[in-house]
Description:
With about 325 residues, the protein is α+β, with helices and mostly antiparallel strands. It has two domains: about 10-165, Beta-Lactamase (2-Layer Sandwich), CATH 3.30.450; about 175-324, Reverse transcriptase/Diguanylate cyclase domain (Alpha-Beta Plaits, 2-Layer Sandwich). It has helices at about 10-20, 30-40, 75-80, 100-105, 140-160, 175-190, 205-215, 215-230, 255-275, 300-324; strands spanning about 45-50, 55-65, 70, 85-90, 110-120, 125-135, 195-205, 240-245, 245-250, 285-290. The strands form two sheets. The protein has a six-stranded antiparallel beta sheet. Strands 8-9-7-10 form a four-stranded antiparallel beta sheet, with helices on both faces. A hairpin with a 2-residue loop joins strand 8 and strand 9 (about 245-250). Helix 2 (about 30-40) packs antiparallel against helix 5 (about 140-160). The mean pLDDT is about 95.
Amino acid sequence: MKAPEHPENENIRIASLHSLKILDTKPEERFDRLTRLAKRLFDVPIAMVNLVDTNRLWFKSSQGVEGTECPRELGFCGHAILGDDIFVIPDALLDPRFCDNPFVIGEPNVRFYAGVPLTLSNGCKVGTLCLVDQVPRTFSEEDKELLRDLGQMVEQELTAVQMATIDELTQISNRRGFISLSTHALNLCRRLEKPASLFFFDLDLFKEINDRYGHAEGDRALISFSKILKESFRDSDVIGRLGGDEFVALLTNADHHESRLILSRLEQIRTDFNKTITRGYAILCSVGTVEFDPNRHQSIEDLLEDGDRLMYAQKKAKRAKSLQ
């Protein structure tokens, strides 16, 4: 039996899943109706919405199987989230990855499996909508298209859950989402003794943009800066808008040198962006940088407090210099 590998973005993927706060919740009709529909349309004994957690598959909705979870290494869905399209096993007994899997040689006697990855807005694949049969079968292109459509419906329901943690204007994490994601990431760094750094950003002269050009243009400036952040930081980093013109980013498993390089890249991207826009203003910012100290910082809120203080110290120094 071959256990599934972990995706390259496993840390942020797990953090994204946990930020939904959907694990170990009660059954919901909006998910159950889709697994019932899948079971009926494909005439299979088992249809499920599975979420791939750290060490388990947790069943958000299941038709035809008892229980609420199983070990991640035994499930097929851990393999399915490694790809972008539907993962199909026509006959598990003929597949060397699964032929001796306990779920194949014993209950529920899996022979056929088809699972479509469920992807969040940040690109993380958190689980699958999957079909299971106890006899081998083929899966046509028409079948795949139908399963993709049902998967998109499940993703829409997950998006509705996720919206509580996403900033509506910039489409990055809001304060609640950032704290949830970064708390998980920081706990991993603490346990694995990995470095982390926090950047606390505040746009300079943002009030002047609103006053002179209007709030719609102010919104465009906020959206532009969020795009600069997304382009500058790595997929594994957590970025968010805390509110107003305050933004934040948490880098994990990056030492001081790497943090400096990322900040330099951000400054270059911001400078290049300002050269291309013709809006009458430039995107400017102050930043407070804090290296995670597990003895000093007991929570993400401690890091935010230090970052906020250092950011305002830089902003104050800029103002003093401009008056000289």
